Amino acid sequence: MEEPKRIQVIRIGAEAIVSKLRWNGFDLISKHRVPKPYRIPELDRWIRDKRTIHEAKILVELKRAGVPAPAIILLDRSSSTIYMQYIKGIELKKALHELDPVRIEKIAGKLGEIVGKMHLRRIVHGDLTTSNVILDETEEIYLIDFGLSSVSDDVEELAVDIHLLDRSLESAHHKIRERFMKHFLLGYSKIVGRDRTLEILRKVKEIRMRGRYVKRGG
Amino acid sequence: MAEEKIVLGIESTAHTLGFGIVSTTGKILANVNYVYKPKEGGIHPREAAQHHSMHAARGVMEALRRAGISPERIDGVAFSAGPGMGPCLRVGATLARALALKLNKPLLAVNHGVAHIEIGRLVTGARDPVVLYIAGGNTLITAYLDGRYRIFGETLDIAAGNCLDTFGIEAGIGPMPNPEVKAREGRKIHPLPYKVKGMDVSFSGLLTAALKLLKKGIEVEDVCLSITETVYSMLTETLERALAFTEKKEILLVGGLARSIRLRQMIEAMAKLHDAKVYVVPPEYAGDNGAMIAWTGALQLLSGLVIRVEESGVKPKFRIDEVEVKWRNLNGSK
Question: CATH fold of A5-85, please?
């Protein structure tokens, strides 16, 4: 057995350093939650450890639910690092600028089904933006980065996922936002049902309104 | 080069009744502000509106006196159209309409949040920053993209300032900056709900949990340390995410809470990791003020964003992304 070799740093994200490793002929991803010098050390350690363990648990649960996401290979709590399957592809954020409308509709619908499956299992992604959806060569979709995910029965938490996706489209891809969301929701309701979808959409609207302006006290 | 014009701006969204006189070249000629202070607890919209009505006439005269100009020199009248409290907004709007009609000059309806950003850019020199707008009633992360200030993150419930103010008042030490000052004597940090969802944050659970710690008899200094560190860490982390997402190289802090020393420290430490430059609006222009409305009004005047009196109703829920930011295409500024 050889030691894993880092062959590429994929992303120095806001929260973690994601690297590609080569290990016994396999490609792996390591996600190392780096200490944040701006947080006081105690709080920083607590946040990183909590998130690392949590993310590992969610990845296992997603496998059971049949949601396409990286398989977990190893967890190293001492360094807040998760080793997982490497998925070859590009971020939806980048793909959206190149794809034609028909393919965008198809992808949006498929993403809706995947998110629906995840939500049926009460898993909330927590950072569902177009940067966290990977498209492989066959246009299969994978969800990545469950660093902020949670398990919840609360409709509001599920609605936040939809709200975040919508907002990432609004801020970076506003020209195709409506078309994308329409097909996303069609796929989503196929899995969770029409009534549940409408219930969640009502919450999305509520969150949007609430976020607007809450002025109380000072 | 067009002739320099002068705009009078009126701010009245919440506590502050402000009057600013600014030229279209960015010279701030006057910035006169009257702040309503409630005897206890939070702001009462009707009482604040009353305070504003009382100071309205005096404020206009004082601003003109300080600018050393006569009313005829004014080329446009701007007011804060929202977001804010209806009764307060209407005082400023009514005054602005009356002045615009009397002077026969264009009326300019300004978004309060956009004004915080624009005055920040003017006085700090930031060009194309990711903006953290934090105040008593607002918590937003925004950046300019395709003609508007797009909202990348915001609070899903109460504002950061509101959270810390309410905590301070309930704890008997008073609103910000008192909780931050007390936190300096804190020694032990207690875990509080750290709710970051993408670039959005949530503070209401954290506020409740912090108040519970107090009831349990934890030292107020320690709770202050825990709540401020947690709130600021959340804000810094979401801002870091927005910076990574937008790939911009500047950060601008605006709004009343931009005065926080500890938050600025944290954000500067974060910016270092990304080679980003941090700009902080100076205290004079951090809180609500008249100059920011006048300056944004001046930018709107230059880009033809004027409004007719009949259409000048206030918008208590005015979002910053509703505003077409036409002026950022003018004079080569991005």
Answer: Phosphorylase Kinase; domain 1 (3.30.200)
